[in-house]
Structure formats: C-alpha cells, structure tokens
Amino acid sequence: xxxxxxxxxxxxxxxxxxxxxxxxxxxxxxxxxxxxxxxxxxxxxxxxxxxxxxxxxxxxxxxxxxxxxxxxxxxxxxxxxxxxxxxxxxxxxxxxxxxxxxxxxxxxxxxxxxxxxxxxxxxxxxxxxxxxxxxxxxxxxxxxxxxxxxxxxxxxxxxxxxxxxxxxxxxxxxxxxxxxxxxxxxxxxxxxxxxxxxxxxxxxxxxxxxxxxxxxxxxxxxxxxxxxxxxxxxxxxxxxxxxxxxxxxxxxxxxxxxxxxxxxxxxxxxxxxxxxxxxxxxxxxxxxxxxxxxxxxxxxxxxxxxxxxxxxxxxxxxxxxxxxxxxxxxxxxxxxxxxxxxxxxxxxxxxxxxxxxxxxxxxxxxxxxxxxxxxxxxxxxxxxxxxxxxxxxxxxxxxxxxxxxxxxxxxxxxxxxxxxxxxxxxxxxxxxxxxxxxxxxxxxxxxxxxxxxxxxxxxxxxxxxxxxxxxxxxxxxxxxxxxxxxxxxxxxxxxxxxxxxxxxxxxxxxxxxxxxxxxxxxxxxxxxxxxxxxxxxxxxxxxxxxxxxxxxxxxxxxxxxxxxxxxxxxxxxxxxxxxxxxxxxxxxxxxxxxxxxxxxxxxxxxxxxxxxxxxxxxx
Length: 619
Description:
Distance between the termini: 36 Å
Helix content: 10-25%
C-alpha cells in the first residue's frame, strides 16, 4: 500500500515528476457493503456504527429503513434515522446506500386513506425466520404508490446533494418488503387482487423513474426476481432491467437478493441469468440471501465462503452482507480469507490506490463521482498529445490476462494508448462522450511470465473532434484471467460433475476443468464476458488423453467449427483453434461443450479444458 507521503506526492506530480516503486497489495475482489436495518439501531451501543464502518473490508453501508419510520403521518417526514447513519458514514469517509422499504412496513394511515390490502401467512426461513400473519398494500395500489413516491421525493429533496449518499434502492411494488420485483402468491390469489403483468410492470416503472429523478446523480439499484403469481417468468424482471438501463445507463445496477451457497445458484438458472446476463453493460450487486452467522446451526463458515465466491465469480462488483455476519468474529475472518483468495483470481485495482510511477508535469488529482468505484478516480489535466501517466500494477501470479480499464467519460476527455512494460496493448481508446458516464475499455490480452509489478503507461494520442480537451480520467484497472476455465462461471449438465484439476507445469495458471462425462449428450457450459463487438477466433487448450471424448462447441446455441476429438494414446497438451464467433455488442456469451461421441480407441468420454481464448480477427 502507498504511504500517506507517497499518495500526497503522487497527487502533486504537476509540481515535480517523481518515481515511486513498490508492490501494491491486490485490491479487494468486490466492494463489501454491510446491511444495517433501522431496528439494528434501536438498542445499539453508541459505537455500533463507528465500529462497523471502521472495518477495513467495509466499502460503505446499506441502510434499510421503512415507510412507517420515515413517513409516520401523511405528508410528515422523519429523517432522524437516515441522518444518523449518513453522518456516521461521512465521519468514516465511506458512502451510504438508502433503501426505504414498503410492503409490510407501511404506516396504518395508508389503509385508513383507502389503500387496498392483501393479508397472508408469511412463512420464511430467511433473515427473520418463522411464520406470521402479514398484511401489505396491493403492490400497484395508487394510494400506496403515491405515499412511496412522496417519501422518495422528500428524501431526494433532503439528501440528493449529500456527497456521502452514493446509491438508492428502487422500492415499492412488492408485498413482503417492497424490495424485489416478485409477486409470491398463487395464480388464484393474484387474480383475486386484480393482478395483470402490465399493472406490475407499470408500477415498477413508475418507481424507477421516481427514484432516478429524485436522485439525479446517484446510482439506482433494482432487485430483480422471477417468481410471479405462482410461476417462474422472466418477462417482468427483464423488461424492468432493460427499461432502467435504456434510460439511466451506467447509473443503473441490477441486484440479486438471493445469493446463496446452494447448488442452484449458477448461470443456467433463470433468476441468475436475468441478473447477470448483461453484466458487460451493468455493474452487478449481489446480496446474501440470509444472515449466515445466525442461521441456528444450519449454516457454516464454509457455506458463507461458497456464497461469497458464487457472487463474485458470477460478476458481482458489490456484495451486500447483513451486518450481523461482519460482527461475528468467525464469519468476518472467513470473509477476509475469501476476499483475499478471490483477489488473486480477479484482480481489480482502484486507480487512486495504485502507485503512480511517473507522469507528465500537468495537474493530477483525485475526483469524486458516485458512478466511480469507491466514488473516487484519478484525473490528469492533459492539454497536448504525448502527455502521459504511468501506474505500477501488480500481477499476483503467472498467467494470461485480459486488460480492462474503467474510465470516466466526458466532454473534455482525450484518447489514450496503453503500453505495458514498454509493449503496446490493444488500440487507443476514446474517453470522449457528450454525456458523462463510466465505461469499460478492453485493451486486449497479454501473458505475464512472472508475478511482479508491471508498468502501465497511458499516453495521449489525440482527441475526438468534439472534445474540448485532452484530459484523461481513470477509475479502475482490471486484470481478468477469466478465460482460464477454472475462473469462468461453469455449469455441468444434469447428473454430471466437473472438477478443478491441477496441471502445474502444463496449464495456464496451473489448473483446468474436467467434465466427468460418461455418455453422448453430456455437456459443460461456461459464461464469458465479451467486452467489445467484433469477429473472434476461438481457441481452446486441452490435455489429450486416452480417456477423452469428442465434443462440439456452440456459442449461444450456434455451432463453432466441427466436432473435436481429444483422444490420444499418450498424454499431450495443445491449443486448438476451433472456429470463429461474431459478437454484435458487449455481452456475456454461453460457451457449451457437448460430447458427441468418442474415438474407437478411447476408454471414455471425459473432457479437460485449460482456457478459452478469443482473438480478434481484425483490429
């Protein structure tokens, strides 16, 4: 980590050019945001919030309050709880996310005013387990939504310009807590309260717009779910997700509030797909489905470890965990261990935390923006071609990496090339945009032969004709070894298993994935983010062996190349170019390897893969 002196010197490179070398620690693999509920504070010690915010792994705090607390009477608002948490976050220098929950947590005056209600027996094994009689407004009731909108707009008036508030949760049209886009009841019950798909979608669209306009510069988060009126349907959640992104772009973050260690939580499950399938566009937020440390003996720290890994490896950049888990010594220790392990596999570095090894003598400083990771980024006030900025970036292990640079785009930004240890990587990227936002630039891939720091040199190459300047702004540098199969989200076909296999001297990163296939039709699916449109050559490295089968690769259901025989009488390792795939927009692709047969001499149908490599066929 940089010393305070190093950081101060680095931020004033316009006075004097300096060189500071050192090995920075890998960034945390995901931001950790503990969930603090208003009820947690009712009888809490005065040091509860400072102690929680003082934990090094905590990036910010999610505060859950309720409509009954913030609007106890019609048109009367109470912001004491919100202000208490916001002030504590501000003192700690960490951001806050606000969620005003409706559903069961509404004041009685809403019903007195005439809101339609629904009463049911609530049975839950999550968070607050038990069975009770519950009542909530009908999700699309106009009186209820008017009250939720009034609270959101009043909160916006009070806090929209507060620099510590970074994100707001879109809440409203849900029964249990007003949080998720579900309607958990039978089709008959739904009909009794007048449910139609359009009513539910329109109600959520209304609240998305309300929060986005009440907090015009903050990130907005929507918890997606597919359990609607007795069936699993993707239409509601996908419609709302795409609606929010089409209007608010990088400000929008889809959330899954059902992150779990259970085996169903993987790509291929519809609810997980809805959440993660467009993560090339959207930053994903994942919330643990339960309080793992108070599960009554049901859960272990090992379960907690798997749940966190599932969230991060499936793409979550923010992880919401109930505060009780962070206040448990055993579970906090497990969290730290898991995050450190994941950091070695998924290296994301905040630009402002990296050591600056050199820079042109122009103003260089940190900027604040709620869209940036941690709310902070680096800006270099370049005014000419050839000016530069150089970071020292750690590669924690030998391997092949994709280099992704997250930048803030704006009307005064320039174009920059990247050279790593003196070798140009990819092509120059244009940071100009008429409307400010953030974007992931995919510079390309490289193989790192030694675990050490590398010099990342960004040089101004020009500017868009519409840009007013050559400035550069950086949020994060990501080294993504995601093409290694063991680091990709993968799912074997029903009834089959897949294992991580160690091949220290022959596989990239020393590991690969083996599908324990036994017959024709067995398959394994990998999910890979492709960050740039284009035509790519697809190559796969494998271990040829006497027990291997023949497989066919499909990408999003389309055959790539022809069936590929991995049989060999003697063990050997080789990369095979299979074919090409066309990507029309940044997205997540499904790579499916299906067993189609076996060589007559083969003793089995198994499959062993090291990595999947995509190489652009043209610049």
